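In the design runs reported in the main text, the only information available to the sequence generator was the tokenized backbone. The following block is the verbatim input for one such run; it is reproduced so that readers can re-run the procedure and compare outputs position by position.
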């Protein structure tokens, strides 16, 4: 089975094409230091220019008053123009030429300032050639880290239509996986006790807006609720019920695109003088327009338009006012940085304690560019590494350990990286692991002992899988991994108790949530790492292979907190010897 993870770089061909384009062109790619500038501190901005880009005069145009930066050969109409200098030359073998790096600085700004900027290279014809095709970069200057509570979050991802009908109602019978199964917001409220008892303190809820689809990522209105799912009163009761239990609610928010049935798009489609026409990008009105991955039913918002940006931001603020504690934002790489800077400033004003992280299925340099805009991004790279190592057995322990050391070092300490093993767009982990529950348990043990906040997709904790691959020929059918939740006797109670134990262990040991991590030992099969904080420590052993592995350690003061598979300990002089069966793991604390 070949793993499929949705995104713009899902194949080697796409990755090479993007890499080549970035080296050939004039590319900034939001490369600034610091990524998340504090008030009063200057910001360094860089861009590179490929061999065929002429000119030696480079400029950095920037504004702090909400206007769009730009100029001509260093002359700025509004705002400021700062010269940039060439600071580095590198030879590119494939392009067979020099790549130049240019650098300039923006002085420190006050708290709450949104800095918008563009960099350019002036060619021999005195033409302004902007980096990134002229896209405006932006950042919010603030001393505003992710909320403290987010570090303790253990998230449960609920797909509303597939989680739970109201009590006493069966699942609806459908002719298609794309049909409506009858999950309701009240069904979630009635299962709050189940979710909390399973170990989770935060619920991430799929889109609840009016929508023609079962998934809701194609809204026709962002200020109300799909009647199939419930009412505003039902949602208020869910939020209140969760808060009474000390739980938080995150809403899946989609600013990049809407449904083609949305009244604003319909007006833009039918009326050449529509006030909403510039909210979308028409290549040839009315038939050709920018969409989400070529899907005509999902027109893309033109968030360079200030009114379109304001509409989306007002919608997010509206849901914070309804008591939502934050957002998981869909396809965060789509909207321009100006949007995210304004989004962060506005949402923090409504709720200074809200937590927002993005879905960015792109490399780490693309993810870390969201510093100062979002609180962080879902950790797709860790997801791939765990699946390659445990589900598919393509990586050995040494490669996984090496990846983890570098991956954790790359991101700034305060950047949220929620971890997960699967989601609604890919094969469930249990399916990918060919039904081997032992592998799922080992992957979960690893997930819950790393720094990222663990996310569990509904049903994973009780053995919910699927019947067919989400990739069937050239077709992607994510609905295969969205089967209805299993309840009652169909659940794997042993697996659920295991997840409860993992969550309880993470809750009790501060080092697993906030501590440092250090690799103690690794070889081809065995991976041992330590977590430490001021109040606790833990030693985690993972046997990432099918053969037994033995490891010696000092057992003084250490006890097994949780294990999976065959794990035995034996006295050996002043130390202890641990024997782990294939695909087994243990936490000592």
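Verbatim output:
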């Amino acid at each position: 089975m070949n793993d499929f993870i949705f995104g713009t770089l899902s194949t080697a061909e796409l990755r090479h094409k993007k890499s080549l384009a970035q080296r050939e062109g004039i590319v900034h790619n939001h490369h600034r230091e610091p990524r998340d500038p504090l008030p009063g501190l200057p910001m360094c901005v860089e861009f590179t220019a490929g061999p065929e880009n002429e000119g030696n005069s480079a400029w950095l145009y920037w504004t702090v008053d909400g206007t769009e930066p730009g100029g001509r050969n260093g002359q700025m109409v509004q705002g400021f123009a700062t010269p940039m200098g060439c600071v580095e030359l590198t030879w590119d073998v494939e392009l067979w030429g020099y790549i130049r790096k240019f650098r300039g600085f923006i002085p420190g700004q006050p708290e709450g300032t949104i800095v918008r900027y563009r960099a350019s290279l002036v060619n021999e014809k005195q033409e302004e050639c902007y980096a990134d095709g002229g896209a405006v970069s932006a950042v919010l200057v603030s001393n505003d880290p992710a909320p403290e509570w987010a570090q303790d979050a253990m998230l449960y991802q609920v797909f509303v239509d597939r989680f739970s009908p109201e009590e006493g109602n069966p699942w609806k019978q459908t002719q298609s996986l794309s049909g409506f199964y009858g999950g309701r917001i009240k069904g979630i409220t009635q299962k709050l006790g189940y979710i909390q008892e399973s170990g989770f303190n935060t619920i991430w809820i799929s889109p609840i807006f009016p929508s023609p689809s079962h998934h809701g990522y194609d809204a026709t209105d962002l200020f109300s609720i799909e009647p199939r799912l419930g009412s505003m009163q039902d949602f208020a009761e869910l939020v209140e019920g969760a808060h009474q239990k000390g739980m938080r609610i995150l809403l899946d928010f989609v600013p990049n695109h809407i449904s083609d049935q949305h009244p604003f798009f319909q007006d833009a489609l039918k009326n050449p003088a529509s006030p909403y026409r510039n909210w979308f990008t028409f290549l040839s009105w009315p038939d050709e327009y920018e969409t989400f991955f070529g899907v005509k039913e999902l027109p893309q918002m033109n968030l360079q338009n200030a009114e379109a940006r304001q509409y989306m931001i007002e919608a997010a603020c509206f849901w914070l006012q309804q008591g939502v504690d934050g957002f998981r934002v869909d396809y965060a790489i789509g909207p321009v940085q100006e949007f995210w800077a304004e989004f962060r400033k506005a949402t923090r004003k409504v709720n200074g304690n809200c937590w927002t992280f993005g879905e960015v299925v792109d490399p780490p340099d693309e993810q870390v560019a969201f510093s100062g805009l979002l609180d962080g991004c879902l950790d797709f790279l860790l997801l791939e590494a765990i699946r390659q190592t445990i589900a598919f057995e393509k990586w050995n322990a040494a490669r996984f350990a090496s990846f983890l050391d570098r991956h954790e070092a790359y991101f700034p300490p305060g950047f949220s990286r929620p971890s997960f093993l699967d989601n609604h767009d890919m094969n469930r982990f249990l399916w990918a692991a060919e039904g081997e529950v032992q592998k799922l348990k080992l992957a979960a043990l690893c997930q819950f002992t790393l720094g990222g906040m663990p996310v569990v997709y509904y049903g994973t904790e009780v053995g919910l899988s699927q019947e067919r691959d989400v990739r069937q020929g050239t077709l992607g059918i994510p609905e295969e991994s969205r089967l209805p939740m299993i309840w009652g006797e169909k659940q794997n109670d042993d697996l659920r108790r295991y997840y409860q134990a993992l969550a309880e262990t993470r809750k009790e040991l501060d080092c697993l949530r906030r501590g440092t991590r250090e690799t103690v030992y690794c070889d081809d099969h065995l991976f041992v790492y330590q977590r430490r904080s001021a109040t606790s420590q833990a030693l985690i052993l993972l046997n990432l292979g099918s053969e037994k592995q033995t490891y010696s350690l000092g057992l003084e003061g250490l006890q097994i907190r949780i294990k999976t598979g065959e794990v035995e300990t034996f006295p050996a002089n002043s130390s202890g010897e641990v024997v782990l069966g294939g695909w087994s793991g243990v936490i000592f604390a």
